[in-house]
Write a structure and sequence with these properties.
61% of the residues lie in helices and 6% in strands. The protein is mainly alpha-helical. It folds into two domains: 75 residues, no CATH class; 39 residues. Strand 2 and strand 3 form a beta hairpin.
């Protein structure tokens, strides 16, 4: 018998326990939630469990749908998604100038801007610049 002590745990647990409960069914193992009054040893408890599981799945799908719609709307507006770049365009240009003039190598330029050399390389690639 699985016992859930937290009220909000049923939503997260429903996703996990449904397949587990099906695997354990031949062994006559039941699920009981003390706070919601769910007890899968009787038909009413199984019904409530399935309803909660369906509602939890519906909520997850709505969250995914809304998140996807929000990301697509942001992309359409031209919003840059993700982590902000460590180097500005001016810093990228200066780093490129330093390397192309042979004053510094990639590691030295990276140290100058307090970033990893691969960060400088990616910035060059993103801006279509070649390193010497």
């Amino acid at each position: 018998m699985a016992v859930i002590a937290y009220q909000s745990a049923i939503r997260q647990t429903a996703k996990i326990t449904t397949p587990v409960r099906k695997k354990l069914a031949p062994y006559i193992i039941h699920f009981v939630s003390l706070s919601e009054g769910i007890n899968t040893t009787n038909p009413g408890g199984r019904l409530v469990f399935h309803i909660f599981s369906a509602v939890a799945e519906f909520q997850r799908e709505i969250i995914v749908e809304n998140t996807t719609a929000g990301l697509n709307a942001a992309r359409r507006k031209g919003t840059r998604l993700g982590r902000p770049p460590k180097l500005t365009l001016d810093e990228i240009a200066e780093a490129h100038r330093q390397i192309m003039q042979g004053r510094k190598d990639m590691g030295e330029v990276a140290g100058l801007f307090d970033v990893h050399p691969r960060t400088v390389e990616r910035a060059f690639e993103r801006e279509g610049l070649k390193a010497a």
